[in-house]
Amino acid sequence: MKFLLVFDFDHTIIDENSDTWIVKCAPERKLPNGLRNSYQPGHWTEYMGRVFVYLGDNGVKEDEMKRTMTTIPFTAGMIDLLGFIGENKELFDCIIVSDSNTVFIDWILKAADFHKVFDEVFTNPAAFSSTGYLTVQHFHAHHCAKCPKNLCKRKVLKEFLDKQLERGVSYTQTVYIGDGGNDLCPVMFLKKNDIAMPRQGYTLEKKISQLAQSLSPVQCSVLVWSSAIDIMSYLKLLIKE
């Protein structure tokens, strides 16, 4: 009996958007209007690439970025939840699927000593160039019209589950914990026995309830959370059953 926990990162594990938090490193803690207005829907990764160039051009170094990123607060109850999962790793496989990047997630999880809780992190690859600029790339290519062009979370989840099956690992239940519009695609992939846990008051919860109202509800069960303690209570029930 093993459960798969799938986490989004921004506004789910941490209580902020890691990509917008980095702007605190910019001169006067803001971006010029031209740069801010250059974002085009579905092309967030390219936009962040330009933000990182701007920071590099303004002499923002890796250590300053790291210091800033590790001040992001975790969502209410999340430290307790991740501690609980860490103590019960024999029951839970745990992955992150996020539109952030490897550098930010790595810094934040390691600073809080949570990196061992997660078996794999699927996010946009990032690295510092030889000139000290942070660069970010698309996670993968896909053909899903619903998702931003750099990441379809359904594809990531499906490929992960397929790979685990090849290794002889199947899960009693998949629990998907997220908040954003790009979490709807993987939630619609979940089966009847699985559970989606959208964060209360965020886009994912609204989109799931819109589907229910238009009589095309998701297959899985839905349990809304406002604190990660709600998630922990559910997991405790799961492992008691």
Describe the protein in words.
The protein has helices at about 20, 35, 45-55, 60-70, 80-85, 100-110, 155-165, 185-190, 205-215, 230-240, and strands spanning about 5, 90-100, 120-125, 125-130, 135, 175-180, 195-200, 220. It is of the alpha/beta class and about 240 residues long. The protein has a domain at about 5-15 and about 75-125 and about 145-240: HAD superfamily/HAD-like (Rossmann fold). The strands form two sheets. The chain has a six-stranded parallel β-sheet. A two-stranded antiparallel ribbon has the order 4-5. Helix 5 (about 80-85) packs parallel to helix 10 (about 230-240). Belongs to the HAD-like hydrolase superfamily. PHOSPHO family.
- The portion of residues forming beta strands comes to 15-25%
Please report the total strand number as a whole number: 8
Low-confidence segments = none
Sheet with most strands: strand arrangement: 3-2-1-6-7-8
Q: What is the SS-derived class?
A: alpha/beta
Q: What is the CATH topology classification name of the domain at 3-15 and 74-126 and 147-239?
A: Rossmann fold
CATH superfamily placement of the domain at 3-15 and 74-126 and 147-239: HAD superfamily/HAD-like
- Overall mean pLDDT: 96
What's the story with the biggest beta sheet?
Answer: 6 strands, parallel
Q: N-to-C terminal Cα separation, in Å?
A: 11 Å
- Name the CATH class of the domain at 3-15 and 74-126 and 147-239: Alpha Beta
Radius of gyration: 18 Å
CATH hierarchy: architecture of the domain at 3-15 and 74-126 and 147-239:
3-Layer(aba) Sandwich
Helix share of residues?
25-40%
Tally of helical runs: 10
* Shape designation: globular
Order of helices and strands: EHHHHHEHEEEHEHEHEH
